[in-house]
Amino acid sequence: MAGFGSPVDDGSDVGTLEAWLLADPDATYLMRMEGEALLDTQVASGDYLLIERTRSVRAGDIVVAEIDGDYVVRFLRKNGRGEQYLEAANEMYPKLIPQESLNIEGKVIACIRKYEN
Amino acid sequence: MQFSQKNAKIFMHVDGDAFFASCEQATNMQWRGKPIAVGRERGIVTAISYEAKALGVRRPMSQTALSREFPQVALLASDYRKYELFSERMKSIVRRYVSDISEGSIDECFADVSSVTTWSDVRGFAKALQEELCIKLGLTISIGVGPTMTIAKIASGFKKPRGLTIVTPENLDMLNSVSLRKVPGIGGRTEQKLAEQGILTIGNLLALAPHEIERRYNKPLVELAYELRGTSVRGIEARENAQSVSSIQAFMEPIIAFAPLLTEFSRNIERVCRKLRTQHARMHAVTIGYKAFPDIHTLVTYTIKCPSPTNDPGTIMQLAEEALHAMYRKGVRYRAVYVGTHGMLESAAQQKLFTTAEDETEEKRNTLNDVVDTLMYRSGGLPLERASSLRPKQTRSEEDTGTPLLKIPHSNKILNIPYLGTIQ
Fold first, then answer.
1. Is the Cβ of B352 closer than 8 Å to some Cβ of chain A?
2. Which chain B residues are Cβ-neighbours of A66 within 8 angstroms?
3. pTM for the complete prediction?
4. Among B177, B263, B280, B377, which is most buried by a count of CB atoms within 10 Å?
5. Are A30 and B420 within 8 A, CB to CB?
């Protein structure tokens, strides 16, 4: 018989793009990237970043953090002694090693680039 | 009256610390730890950060006095939509711990946690909630726990910011020295009346026997005394029924002409009706009001009865417009407009046996409103507004307005997710 095929129903419900992007909608915020610190990881100036405020942040995550009074977005890294520092994805930018303080604000969970307004 | 631990209710009061200022600090990282104040659009300080409080800034304080005495304190325009976003998130997080909550005002909520924790576990429960709120919102919250809503609210104010105070039925004595001024529900006049009788603290009031309190005072104070003794007479439900919906909008520049004033009323009427529709509620009467120079702190209000319970902005606008024509005075500089529901709300449309021509008109309006709601909220947000709500293009200085919420291009919508500005 011709017509539409009927795919196997795996019992899944339909979800929204928003629900998928915002895993924890009460803890997710929007920021805008300025500059080229994350260029090698394909985040360009002007891109929008979704930031989740969460406790579970690990080395290797892209984080928004306060380091010695400045707020930046960088990769969170750990050295051999387990001390945290921040690293850009662009060799033009220096490693940031905290002298006094390093506080993680949240982690970047998505990057959004809109091609049209 | 004695209650055994088992039967006693456990209430929690969740309260944002310096909420408006904290929302501004949460959305602009450069202002963390800095003294800021909110209220520039009204020319007075209406909210202050803890850092500004520590410097000695008090409210209310005029903009002139602030810039003279505390030039280092930035005064920002308030952004209620931003505070509402944070408020909704706060309540949504609380709701994940306990479903029985009463929304209270924008920066607080009450919850009956009796069914989800016990007096021996409530500290850990509240601490976990507090921590989650603080991490996810990026601002601090104080929590009070008590056997009644009144005690919970007093407790949340004990050790701000980020306080956690638990008043168990066994240690109610700790409230005895609290001044009646800090008791919610006791107004200036009642406080004065009681002070004249030498009653200054909760301890003073409760030293009177219950029957003596009942003999001397009116019902609200009698109820309050029960609450302070740990006997819950105010429940979450009773408060929710009494809830009202309102919207107030202050202007950066005063409005003098009638047309733009009408536009602002229309916008606020739409906002109130939208809130009602999301709650499936209707109002029996609407209160409209304004604040104007020179007496900018007084809200002048008019209440208009609706022919039948409604949440349709067209119906309300028709009623309001007539009243607005009557109240508008040429030359007056209007500073703010207010729209609010009056009296009890009706939770759903009553079923009628027979329908009339008016009912059919109403039915059509309901359908229209449903369509509008669907288009605005479920399909990516079309810029739908009543023609009367459209503002002329505004040129407004953007300095000191905090980090604005992101606008959706080609619409007059803002994105429903807080924007924290740029990051390098």
1. no
2. 29, 32
3. 0.74
4. B263
5. yes
Domain hosting residue B195, numbered range: 176-243
Domains of chain A: 21-112 (2.10.109.10)
* Residues 100-129 (B) with a CB less than 8 A from some CB of A: none
Chain B residues near residue A54 by CB distance under 8 angstroms: 135-136
Please tell me which residue of chain B has the smallest CA distance to A114: B409
Same domain, B385 and B401: no
Pick A29's closest partner by Cβ from B135, B420, B422: B420
Residue in chain A closest to B403 (alpha carbons) equals A31
Residues B252 and B223 reside in one and the same domain: no
Q: Are residues B25 and B117 in the same domain?
A: yes
Using CA coordinates, name the residue in chain A closest to B379.
Answer: A16
CA distance A5 to chain B (A): 28
A 10 A CB-CB count for B48 gives 26
Q: Tell me if B424 and A34 make a contact (CB, 8 A cut-off).
A: yes
Of B332, B183, B197, the closest CA to residue B256 belongs to B332
- For the four alpha carbons of B394, B404, B13 and B346, in that order, the dihedral sign comes to positive
Q: How far apart are CA A88 and CA A73, in angstroms?
A: 8
Do residues B152 and B22 share a domain?
A: yes
Say yes or no for a CB contact (<8 Å) between B420 and A53: no
Q: Is B329 helix (H, G, I), strand (E, B) or coil?
A: coil
CA distance B280 to B274: 10
Do residue B346 and residue B267 come from a single domain? yes
Q: Which residues pair with B283 in a beta bridge?
A: B310, B345
| Chains A & B: contacts with CB separation below 8 Å | 66
Per-residue pLDDT of chain B (424 residues; tens, 9 = 90+): 444 444 579 999 999 999 999 999 999 988 999 999 999 888 899 999 999 999 999 988 999 999 999 999 999 999 988 998 999 999 999 999 998 888 778 899 999 999 999 999 999 999 999 999 999 999 999 999 999 999 999 999 999 999 999 999 999 999 999 999 989 888 888 899 999 999 999 999 999 999 999 999 988 899 999 999 999 988 776 444 446 788 888 787 789 899 889 988 998 998 899 888 877 888 988 989 998 887 777 788 888 898 888 999 999 998 888 888 888 888 899 988 889 888 888 876 444 555 566 667 777 777 777 776 666 554 444 556 667 776 665 444 444 668 888 888 888 788 999 999 999 9
Q: How many domains does chain B have?
A: 3
Q: How far apart are CA B118 and CA B132, in angstroms?
A: 20
Token reading at A100: 């006094």
DSSP code at position B401: S
* Same domain as B353, residue B307: yes
The reply to whether B407 and B353 lie within a common domain is: no
B135·A55 Cβ contact <8 A: yes
CATH number, domain of B343, equals 3.30.1490.100
B181: exposed, middle or buried (C-beta count within 10 Å: 0-12, 13-18, 19+)? Answer: exposed
The CATH number that applies at residue B183 is 1.10.150.20
| B248 and B360 assigned to the same domain | yes
Per-residue model confidence (pLDDT) at position B2: 44
Residue in the structure block whose two tokens are 């929590």: B143
